[in-house]
Amino acid sequence: MAEYGTSVASTASPDKVWRIWSDMSTWGDWNPNVSTMDWQGGFVSGTTGVMNTRAGQHHKMRLLDVVSGRSFALETSVGPLTLFRFNCRIEPVGGETKIGQYVEVKGPLGPILGGMLGPQVSKEFGTLLSNLAKKAEAAG
Question: Pick from 49, 56, 72, 81: most CB atoms within 10 A?
Fold first, then answer.
């Protein structure tokens, strides 16, 4: 299954990046699309909630595959038989931290819709990841 997305390099430590990324109450500060996250439970696999966008949309989401300090995924339904899975990763590389976000389009229609929707959905990942990196670098 194809992934669409990007990564940025940061001088912030992986721990600093993780502290901000795993605190959903901060997402509206650095993600230009997110207004608020209404989440039921902690930052652990299986918890669910709603992402409220600045455009007024509300997306039910589920947190999956959380590996503390390294990675997590968010999954949401985007219509019948189609899921978006957002794979988020933190990786130390040399003296920097690589922060990446990628989207997979899953389900029976995934192979068809992925090529159409994947590049469109992922086009703003660079901006939100750069904002996340700046916030982590400024964190004390």
Answer: 72
The pLDDT tens digits of the residues spanning 52-94 come to: 999 999 999 999 999 999 999 999 998 778 899 999 999 999 9
Angstrom distance (rounded) from CA 69 to CA 74: 16
* Number of domains observed in the structure of the chain: 1
CATH of the domain at 131: 3.30.530.20
| Residue 35: both structure tokens together | 């207004």
Residue 3 structure tokens: 């992934």
CA distance 138 to 124: 22
| Domain around 39 | 3-138
Distance CA 78, CA 117 (A): 11
Angle of helix 125-138 relative to helix 14-21, nearest 10 degrees, comes to 110
Alpha carbon separation from 62 to 76, 94, 117, 139 (Å, rounded) = 7, 32, 20, 27
> Using CA of residue 26, residue 30, residue 36, residue 42, what is the dihedral sign?
negative
